[in-house]
């Protein structure tokens, strides 16, 4: 039996608990939140407000880090140091220094599973497309275009003291919401980002310190160029579009995990992809998720539990989870420096830009 502790019982912690419960050989032992009023959101054998108590429990095998961004690194590192397997919500970290600490800690403990949540990579269509891109079915990948938009208003930003704050959230629409589509696009393309040129801005919301507009151009190894856009525009509910073009074909994913367009000479391939249903697997609906985030936490949790049981690495290691995270931080740095930024980032020179309200 794998015994699980969920640290952070706000919006996403219960999704981890629900995903864990789908496995008959796993049990949610602890619900932990520093705010005691959140504890009842997760049914567990025990509950506490002290993460240290959970991490010190020798019965705990896996810790799910579901806190706000700046707490990820300290909680994850303490859990790894105590010999636990760790799943950490996106973004792994909101500073290059924390990102580096987390990757180094995971690399130092290869026997422990350390996985960063990017649940959209687990959608059946996404997995098949990744396989096809990797085996060359779309030829040399030349461009990636990510177009993300959503609405997050004053009420949303008022729902948690950390939301919309420069230090407490570490960024805005890109690092919190757009990161899903940015990550999916970069992962599907097999991108190895090298240089990022970008600009973020605060155009609409006076109640936040972080960006509501994000634009980046990413030069990647092998000549791939990625254009990334993420905006909190006040009118779009949730839009995630990505288009990948290769020398032998292209595809566009529309909202959710829908195949919106495909160009490829093979009719069999076009038909196969059009028939993939990402809301279910083997005919069974995927559980354990929220509509807007997709239903794929359940699949990522299953991957992590299988990795723990078999001793293999998880599908999304901490190192894998840094790629999109670092591109977003590099865009913030590029805004501060008004210059292209090379990866890997230098933690010593990183700073999030001060963003005056542009359309006041
Ligand atoms: N993958 C997804 O689709 C998805 C969706 C929503 C949120 N998230 C991510 O999940 C994380 C949490 O977001 P949320 O919306 O659930 O936030 P939230 O504010 O609703 O919940 C976070 C909880 O963590 C608790 N907490 C903070 N520090 C703690 C500590 N040291 N020990 C114990 N408890 C602590 C807070 O009291 C709070 O209740 C963020 O990283 C966010 O980006 C991911």
Overview of the molecule:
- This protein is α/β, with parallel strands linked by helices and 360 residues long.
- The chain has 2 domains: 2-119, NAD(P)-binding Rossmann-like Domain (Rossmann fold, 3-Layer(aba) Sandwich); 120-283 and 321-342, 2-Layer Sandwich (Dihydrodipicolinate Reductase, domain 2), CATH 3.30.360.10.
- The chain contains 10 helices and 16 strands.
- The strands form 3 sheets. The protein has an 8-stranded mixed sheet with strand order 13-12-11-7-10-9-8-16.
- Strand 5, helix 4 (96-107) and strand 6 (114-116) form a beta-alpha-beta unit.
- Helix 7 crosses helix 10 (318-337).
- The longest helix has 20 residues, at 318-337.
- The protein is globular, with a radius of gyration of 20 Å.
- Bound molecules: nicotinamide-adenine-dinucleotide (NAD).
- Nicotinamide-adenine-dinucleotide (NAD) is lined by residues 7-13, 32-35, 38, 51, 66-69, 71, 75, 89-90, 117, 119, 160, 176, 293.
- Nicotinamide-adenine-dinucleotide binds at residues 7-13, 32-35, 38, 51, 66-69, 71, 75, 89-90, 117, 119, 160, 176, 293.
CATH architecture of the largest domain: 2-Layer Sandwich
Query: Can you count the beta strands?
Result: 16
Strand content: 15-25%
| Largest sheet properties | 8 strands, mixed
Structural class call reads alpha/beta
Radius of gyration: 20 Å
Shape: globular
What is the CATH third-level topology name of the largest domain?
Dihydrodipicolinate Reductase, domain 2
Query: Strand order across the biggest sheet?
Result: 13-12-11-7-10-9-8-16
Give the C-level CATH assignment of the largest domain: Alpha Beta
Q: Specify the CATH homologous superfamily of the largest domain.
A: Dihydrodipicolinate Reductase, domain 2
| Mean pLDDT across residues | 94
Separation of termini? Answer: 56 Å
């Amino acid at each position: 039996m794998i015994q699980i502790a969920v640290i952070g019982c706000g919006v996403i912690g219960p999704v981890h608990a629900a995903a864990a419960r789908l496995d008959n050989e796993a049990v949610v032992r602890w619900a932990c939140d520093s705010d005691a009023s959140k504890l009842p959101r997760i049914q567990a054998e025990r509950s506490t407000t002290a993460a240290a108590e959970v991490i010190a429990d020798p019965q705990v095998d896996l810790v799910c880090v579901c806190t706000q961004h700046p707490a990820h690194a300290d909680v994850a590192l303490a859990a790894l140091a105590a010999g636990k397997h760790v799943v950490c919500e996106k973004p792994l970290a909101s500073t290059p220094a924390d990102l580096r600490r987390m990757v180094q800690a995971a690399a130092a403990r290869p026997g422990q599973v350390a996985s960063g949540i990017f649940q959209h990579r687990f959608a059946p269509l996404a997995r098949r497309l990744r396989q096809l891109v990797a085996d060359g079915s779309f030829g040399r990948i030349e461009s990636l275009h990510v177009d993300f938009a959503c609405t997050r208003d004053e009420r949303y930003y008022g729902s948690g003291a950390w939301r919309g704050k420069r230090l407490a959230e570490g960024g805005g629409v890109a690092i919190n919401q757009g990161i899903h589509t940015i990550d999916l696009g970069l992962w599907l393309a097999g991108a190895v980002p090298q240089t990022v040129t970008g600009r973020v801005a605060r155009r609409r919301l006076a109640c936040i310190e972080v960006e509501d507009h994000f634009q980046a151009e990413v030069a990647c190894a092998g000549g791939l160029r990625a254009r990334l856009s993420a905006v909190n525009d006040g009118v779009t509910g949730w839009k995630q579009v990505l288009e990948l073009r290769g020398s032998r074909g292209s595809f566009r994913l529309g909202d959710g995990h829908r195949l919106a367009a495909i160009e490829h000479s093979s009719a069999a391939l076009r038909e196969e992809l059009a028939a993939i249903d990402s809301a279910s697997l083997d005919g069974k609906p995927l559980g354990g998720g929220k509509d807007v985030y997709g239903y794929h936490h359940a699949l990522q949790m299953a991957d992590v539990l299988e990795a723990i049981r078999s001793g293999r690495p998880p599908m999304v290691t901490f190192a894998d989870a840094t790629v999109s995270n670092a591109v977003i931080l590099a865009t913030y740095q590029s805004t501060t420096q008004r210059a292209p930024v090379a990866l890997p980032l230098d933690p010593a020179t990183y700073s999030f830009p001060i963003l005056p309200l542009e359309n006041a």
